Amino acid sequence: MRQPVPPYAGNAILLREATAAILVVGVLGTLLVWSFWPTLERLAERWSIDPQYSHGFLVPIFAAVILWLKKPAEIAWRPSVWGLPLLGGALVVRWYAARMDLTHVDGACLIVSLLGATLLVGGWDVLRWTAPAILFLGFMVPLPDVINDGIAIPLRRLATIVSTYVLQTFGYPAMSEGNTIQIDDIRLGVIEACSGLGMLMTFLALATAMAIVAPGPIVDRLVLVASSIPIAVFANVLRIIVVAMADVRFGKHHHDSIDKILGWPMMPLALILLWLELRFLRLLFVPTNAVAPLSVPLSPWLERAK
Fold this sequence. Notes:
Helix content is 68%, strand content 4%. By secondary structure, it is mostly helical. The protein folds into 2 domains: 9-141, no CATH class; 146-284, no CATH class. α3 (59-69) packs antiparallel against α6.
């Protein structure tokens, strides 16, 4: 004869499973932090000295917000052994990259390790919930130097040409020589920090975060992310133009302070432009099932015709 199961037995089992899951997450998370601590230190140092990647300090905060906003009402934690090859493969690649002195691979290995650990501990449902936030952490990893130069150099040249043309349109005798804008006796160099790469990465991260969180069709989200590129170029050109006009008006000795001051309003400007674009896309692309077609009763007209 089967013994009756006490009503509190199910709650006790769930409590033991949750305690075990928290324990495993704590131990595995501690090991990952210990293993990738040198990588995190190098990333933080790069963020603090390189203005093109200063947004790296904000990326984990945005990732946490995405994780919170995308949290489902109910989720099942079912550990999956498929996380072991993903986690092990990332650690093996990291070991090989350390031997070959490929430090830029550490950031990618960190992201893959987090995905593998999440799949190992939580399973596929938890991975589907956390994957957007974990992949978003990729914006905090600096690009390899080859890719970085391949993007930054054309951006500097584009910013120089467009800024010179706009200044000429406004009546300034501006001429471009390489990446330098000449206005009378004032020479404004579009240096690496003014290439717009940092602004591009920041705006791309903001647009991606909005596309992940904001509801709407996938087409609207893709358009929103793609539009962050021209918005970043526009904001960078606007910054260069205002700095050049300020140099002509107030003198070159105020250049550094004006340049730093103008850098702060660019992120709110990007948020406003992206929000306006999202609103416009929602008005432009109307779902086909949003409004039912008008029904026209034809039977009375047919009877009258007879």
